[in-house]
Amino acid sequence: MNARPGRLVLLGHPVAHSLSPTFQNAALRRAGLPWTYEAMDVAPANLAAAMHRLRELRACGNVTVPHKEAVAALCDRLTPIAERVGAVNTFWVEDGRLVGDNTDVGGFEQAVERAFGTVRHWPQLTLLGAGGAAAAVMAAAERWTGCRVLLWSRNAARSARLAERFPNVRCVASREEALRDADLVVNATPLGLHAGDDHPALIQSLNARAAVFDLVYVRGETAWVLAARAAGHPAADGLGMLIAQGALAFERWFGVAPDREAMWDSVTA
């Protein structure tokens, strides 16, 4: 890892809405570290050139949509978990080489534990969506004893390609089939990011025991999470995962754990 990064950035397109600079800069201030974490809006056509420049600057950073899989292909080395997921959300420069990691996996696990408790058992996880975030959820779920994943997305071909990589994952033909016996339902689609979006799944389609975890986050929680909780389902949005993956990334860059309370306070005060 790079002990003195030349720059700290978040790459995405768009990226202005992200809360990552808010809580990462709060953690940097609390730790007394003299860096500023910046958002960089990089169009896909400019990504390779941007990563080349960041390598030269010895930068560290995070990656968000739509660049996670593309950055993985641009790295000189991937950690085992980034290889497993096929996507990178955290990077740094080590001995002149661009190293890619994926802290979304650990971030998801920690956020689920925070939201629902460490003693919960998830025999069936229903996953809606088949992008890079979905792959991170699958990589986490395959470490949970006895957990099978039912996958549904509107892009059946992409779902099939993703499911081939994980032995405990099965694609289903309909969202209703995926939801029928779910213990935990995870939204890995962008639905809910904008006001007026449809719910990823109808609340009345959930069985009584199902918990809901939305990878999307908005201030005040997503409409889907609020509706699920109002109907009696344990529910949480993606803010906990965002902060957990960011805290794990901070630890990769600097070798010390950040003050997570300072991170939470910066986005919830």
Search tags:
269 residues; alpha/beta; Rossmann fold; 6-stranded mixed β-sheet; 6-stranded parallel β-sheet; 39% helix; 18% strand; globular
Question: What's the short version?
Answer:
With 269 residues, the chain is of the alpha/beta class.
List the SSEs and their pairings.
Elements: E1 8-12, H1 20-31, E2 37-41, H2 47-56, E3 60-63, H3 68-74, E4 77-78, H4 80-85, E5 90-94, E6 97-101, H5 104-116, E7 124-128, H6 132-141, E8 148-152, H7 156-163, E9 169-171, H8 175-179, E10 184-187, E11 211-214, H9 223-230, E12 235-236, H10 239-254, H11 260-268
Parallel strand pairs: 1-2, 1-3, 4-6, 7-8, 7-10, 8-9, 10-11, 11-12
Antiparallel strand pairs: 3-5, 5-6
General description of the model:
With 269 residues, the protein is of the alpha/beta class. The chain contains 11 helices and 12 strands. The radius of gyration is 18 Å and the shape is globular.
How many distinct domains? 2
Largest sheet report: 6 strands, mixed
Shape: globular
Q: Determine Rg (CA atoms, Å).
A: 18 Å
Instruction: Trace the largest sheet across and list its strands.
Output: 2-1-3-5-6-4
Number of helical elements: 11
Oligomer: single chain
How does the helix and strand content classify structurally? Answer: alpha/beta
**Broad CATH class of the largest domain:** Alpha Beta
